[in-house]
Please model this.
Amino acid sequence: MINGNVKLNPGARLLFIGDSVTDCNRLRPVGQGSGHGLGEGYVAEVDRLLAQMHPRRPVRITNMGVSGDTVRDLAARWDSDVIALEPEWLAVMIGINDVWRQFDGVDSAAAVPLEEYWDTYDGLLARTRPMLKGLVLMTPYYVQAERRDIMRLQMDEYGRVVKDLAARHRALFADTQAAIDSVLTRLDYKVVAPDRVHPTEIGHRVLAHAFLRAVGFKPLSRR
Model:
């Protein structure tokens, strides 16, 4: 059970969009319904936990994550995968591939520089925010406790952009990197994400709880 200062109302239409971490084998073309329809990751976990709170009037969740996406890819499909679906609430987590491609040595042309990341993301939010009741921005992350690691340093820069955009567009902010950092103080990174990006079941649970805290839910204290 979870409770708190809830901002997400029962029955709301909530759409998640992002990359492979959001996708997680969700149903095509539109990821809807319970179970496999929403994939096998944090989106399905959010759905499960919210259903415990509002079993008679559940939040209606749609998953539009696509593996490999950068913010450029989101921009290319934004009209069909966000605007046309008319969500009341929108949750976005993007940026991992924008950074990852700068380091993988495979497709550096797909990497998205920080300034382009800001400009593209800002433009999408500016034209979408007026149609939404609520917006949640989730940081990209890297499962690396060593904060001087070069990719971790770069990911933190992109995370700061997300925090700034959340303030700029009156969005709720879910700091997934901070949530993962907290878990890494007591768990090895392989328990969270063996490749430091794609979460295990435990890792997806961490992301789900970070989202839920952002929208006003929190675990009940144990007696």
